[in-house]
Design goal:
Two copies of one chain form a homodimer. Chain A contains 17 helices and 23 strands. By secondary structure, the first copy, chain A, is of the alpha+beta class. In chain A, strand 20 and strand 21 form a beta hairpin. The two termini of chain A are 54 Å apart. The interface between A and B is large, with 122 and 121 residues.
Chain lengths: 581, 581
């Protein structure tokens, strides 16, 4: 072993102890007669001192040559520091070095290895192994490990069994694109990497495993939006002999456990709202409820008052921005510009200031009197001092715009505190959603989700109105988990494939094994999957997942550090029975 | 929830309780006026009773229709059984059923769902979800989970951090074949699936993570020998600032912990033997030391005695089969036939019976007298009652043959008890091995293994004699883990690639990122990887890994249940910029 202690271990209780430490040179200060070196490892920083009077000359001279990120081993004595640093675990002591070994030299790193670095995203990715030395990244990876361990412990204690499902599976054209793997031994055939272990976990339920989980990599070959990765990690779960209520309780329990164990935060029972309510109240199926600003629909109180913009709109809807009646004209114009940006696409915004004296001053005073505007305040829940912001237009589009505005206002008001956690369940998702492009319905969750029994009759007449036993867990405006009660009989599954536009042959070729399995005694079952990358990032108080992934890929799906993907040689292509186009 | 208790939970303390159970019909016995049903779930079996006098007629009639593997829910009262079954946790009670719901019917399963099944390997694989209902498979998966949890707990408690490394990496022609994944976004380029996270774990050490582990899937597109899988699971570990001794201690500790926690077995400190000693003493670098029969080299005592077979042989080597002096001529001929089979390839076998009266009777009595043969006994460690078995020929080949014979004799003698555990370390592996086919040296472990410093000079002169800081953990004749101290400086790594026949360009193209990383302050580091599938199987007392994998592939790399790999459509090929040959 190259060390007797790590660089975070020593304190005043060790004074006069002979120790051996190893680590990286964080920085050194050469005062001529005295050299201080901060020695860093994963566990902390310990100050080394080389003293021209007390240190052997050869050692002292060698210490002068130490550069940033050199790897060294030192022997020495723990002594009390003259000027203590109360902000460091090791701040009371330093090591008077007697022996110094340079274990490895280092080139000057391309960016500073400090909490605040001067390195841009690209260079940090290329030298990710240096980026990982920085506390923000290192601590994110340690944090991720801690979360994963707690998840495993909690579920295992509840008799869940982690089962590894295969990575080399079968390609299914439904949904997102698969990554495929040509088979050498089976000419002309391909494996696919799983987008999720969905069918396997259902087969485990048919197989009687009863309670399954797995922390597992999944793969989607989609064009990468910001903060998405082609490979990502799920906490994948499934239970047999359960109803929706049981699943919500178990995984609400898991999330409360994590908040308590990891963050020390106790949260109340999660609110549950329906998808319809979420869309109407927040314009969004993953509402951030750390703050209010619920939507108030103003059609009744704002239409037919000579203001043609509202009169011709399908929906007039507003929110009350708390305490913003004091906004200047400039601040309000800025918000109007914001909603008119192409990314949001509103044609304009109406506002009404609910002054502290109880009067309301609006941008449409010529159409609305105080009584009208007090009704707006009532509907949007505005109080004196608030600013009412109103958008109008086609219902769905307007809700989406107001949802974006609501989040923007909350951000400006500092209401999205990453150390506040407001989880909830959104339930009763639609079973199907209409896809304009293909002109047919798609499964909103996936084709294995069961319709609510009372809605099955609607499949023939109004498929878009059929609700599913499907649910999402939402945390601070992010969907962190989602699942459903599954279909567990062949007839319903066949019916579902039919409604989704599969021919009988297609359904059999792709999912025949699952429908076969349903004939041999499939129990009622359901489950859910959490996105671990996102969950960990949110618990860690961060907006982006990238620092919680050791070796992420860029937006072109490249690993710029190892330079992958890359070309392969002709012999390999030959063996795989493929060629390039 | 479909149940108040599971099928393993109820006992005499629950008598008179109203309960709801759900599960599968294991079997039913219809005695006309009385029907008994064994209801099964993951947790156990509970006996249900339907009684024509006490049960509602409609329920009773429905009970008559229940077939094997039907999924049912029952309500009823826990009552005391008349004839108790002491072998079952629930054997004191039964449920007098008042309500019965058939949750799902079942076709007759293609094989019996019992501990001893009538299903062959192929049919069990096709209906793996039914096979998993059987206790031997179900319990193997639960056992695997338990082992994996203990591994994570042990390493985590020692400050190891589990870090997820990427699955979409870069193809490297070295070693086994990669599975590759065509990139849609990077035309003509391919990812590879990792054969191991080797370079990433080394980069994590360069990144200061200090102690890393991961339970991770790895992939090798090799022709599948019996009991190998194209995707397999490793417990992958790496540590910085350590020497070989530290690594051996940590992972010996892990293995002792598993044996104790999982099997309740305490083992002594593991023996450590060198590779050379293992080859000389057991003819094998993964010796089974649950039994003796160490090799005795007989050249000195058996050559130059007029027996030309021995005189012309490079090596004459024997073992003493304990207690086998009583073998009949037929039993011995059977062993001779066994070593002469083409799989073993010996041209013959000499034997000598060390009788209980102290005399020795050999198959070569005309060349050797009692004194000679007593010397054989001394060298092989034979005692009166033992049978000395001797092979001769070229050294390496003969050792391999005798190793196989040693294992066969041990099997016949019942010395390979799966509930006895004899772990050991084999150390000082050669760095390189000569490959006849390519006419050059290959890395025995992998190209990142460090040579022993004292042997580096031999690289130029006798590369085959250079020893590595490489070690295997062996358990009951299986290599269950292996690792090494790594190279951590660019110059040595470059030298190694040179000796392995890489051009400078090839080395840079494939592993440039690693050599770059070594320039920025790489610490000394090393590690090891366990094969989890094999480790779990051995701990579970089984010879084959297949039942410890939920959804294994067959010897052609196919998943016969889901029928993968399979063809993909032309549009997919088009998008991936490839076509079939």
């Amino acid at each position: 072993m190259y060390r007797s202690h790590n660089c975070g271990a020593l304190n005043a209780s060790h004074i006069a102890t002979e120790v051996t430490l190893a680590g990286w040179v964080q920085k050194s200060r050469d005062k001529g007669f005295m050299i201080w070196v901060d020695l860093r490892d994963r566990y902390g920083i310990t100050q080394l001192i080389f003293d021209s009077e007390r240190t052997d000359t050869a050692v002292f001279e060698m210490a002068k040559t130490l550069g940033r990120e050199f790897v060294i081993q030192v022997k020495g004595t723990v002594i009390e520091r003259e000027s203590k640093n109360k902000n460091m675990a090791t701040g009371d002591i330093e090591i008077l070095v007697s022996e110094l070994t340079i274990l490895n030299v280092a080139l000057t790193p391309p960016f500073t290895i400090e909490d605040e670095t001067d390195g841009g995203e690209d260079i940090r990715m290329k030298y990710r192994y240096l980026d990982i030395r920085r506390n923000p990244v290192k601590n994110s990876l340690l944090f991720r490990h801690k979360v994963a361990m707690e998840v495993r412990k909690y579920l295992s204690d509840l008799d869940f069994c982690e089962v590894e499902t295969p990575y080399l599976i079968k390609s299914t054209p439904e949904g997102a694109r698969d990554f495929v793997v040509p088979s050498r031994m089976n000419e002309g055939q391909f494996y696919a990497l799983p987008q999720s272990p969905q069918t396997f976990k259902q087969l485990l339920m048919v197989g009687g495993m009863d309670k399954y989980f797995q922390i597992v990599k999944c793969f989607r070959d989609e064009d990468l939006r910001a903060d998405r990765q082609p490979e990502f990690t799920q906490i994948d779960c499934e239970m047999a002999f359960v109803e929706q209520e049981d699943i919500l309780n178990v995984f609400e329990g898991l999330t409360r456990h994590l908040l308590k164990e990891i963050k020390g935060i106790e949260v109340d029972k999660f609110p549950r709202i329906t998808y319809d309510y979420a869309m109407k109240t927040y314009g969004n199926d993953k509402p951030d409820i750390r703050f209010g600003m619920e939507f108030g629909e103003l059609n009744e109180v704002a239409q037919h008052k000579e203001f043609s913009v509202f009169n011709t709109a399908e929906l007039v809807v507003g929110i009350a921005a708390p305490g913003c009646a004091s906004y200047t004209r400039k601040e309000i114009d800025n918000l109007i510009d914001w909603v008119k940006r192409p990314q949001i696409g509103a044609s304009g915004m109406v506002y009404a200031k609910y002054e502290l004296d109880g009067t309301i001053k609006s941008s449409v005073d010529k159409f609305y009197d105080q009584e009208d505007l007090l009704n707006w305040a009532k509907v949007t829940g505005a109080k004196p001092g608030d600013l009412i912001l109103v958008l109008s237009g086609p219902a769905h589009k307007t809700r989406t715009q107001l949802s974006a505005l609501r989040m923007e206002v909350a951000t400006r008001l500092g209401l999205r505190n990453p150390e506040v956690f407001a989880p909830l369940w959104v339930v009763d998702f639609p079973l199907l959603e209409f896809d304009e492009e293909s002109g047919r319905y798609h499964a909103m969750h996936h084709p294995f989700t069961s319709p609510k029994p009372e809605d099955i009759a609607l499949l023939e007449t109004e498929p878009g109105k059929v609700r599913a036993n499907a649910y999402d867990m939402v945390l601070n405006g992010n969907e962190i988990g989602g699942g459903s009660i599954r279909i567990h009989d062949k007839a319903t599954q066949q019916l579902m494939f039919k409604y989704l536009g599969f021919t009988e042959e297609e359904a059999k070729a792709q999912f025949g094994f699952l429908m076969d399995a349903f004939q041999f005694g499939a129990p009622p079952h359901g489950g859910l999957a959490f996105g671990l990358d996102r969950l960990v990032a949110i618990l860690g108080g961060q907006e982006t997942i990238r620092d919680f992934i050791a070796f992420p890929k860029n937006n072109s799906g490249r690993d710029v550090m190892i330079d992958a993907p890359s070309v392969i040689d002709d012999k390999q292509l030959e063996e795989l029975h493929i060629r390039l186009k």
